[in-house]
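Before relying on records like the one below, remember that each one covers exactly one chain. Contacts with other chains, cofactors or solvent are not represented anywhere in the record.
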Amino acid sequence: MEAGPAPEDSPRMNRNTFNENFREDMEKKTYLCYEVEVFEGDNPSPVTMLKRYLKNEPGCHAEICFLNRISSSGLDREKRYVVTLYISWSPCYNCAQKLVEFLGRNQNVTLRIFAVRIYDIYVEYEEGLRSLDRAGAQISIMTSEELKHCWETFVDHQGQPFQPWFNIDQNYQILTQRLKSILNTQGN
């Protein structure tokens, strides 16, 4: 996998776009920020890192856009990858299944997912999250620290510091308990 442009050369998300889509009380579109760390051999530090953001496209959820992009980059089976997704909505059932398939084909990839809110529009969303968990993906609700990281890494903040919004910690605790309940519940 080629490293691509340095993070500072990548386009950054508009501040308003971030605030409208990553606040838990603003239910807009799905945005996905990702970091791919590439490790060679026994080196404990990444040798390259790719950072970008994507959004839903017509007929293509952000997760599928990401999978299309990373799959076309040609992952090297001799290297280890840690992929971290920061996403405004947790994956829907279909996207979760595609991520599970990706992990099954790429045993050298560790996947971490941090979501602002849980996508619960269709009944099978819970099974999708559980299947990701069983496949080894680490799924969590974004804390204010992860949101701050996204702000500093992916947003054209023009020097403005990240400002956590009202009830951010309370929302995190509620959604973390809900996610824990989903992941600990056995499917039918």
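The CA atoms of residues 12 and 156 lie 5 Å apart.
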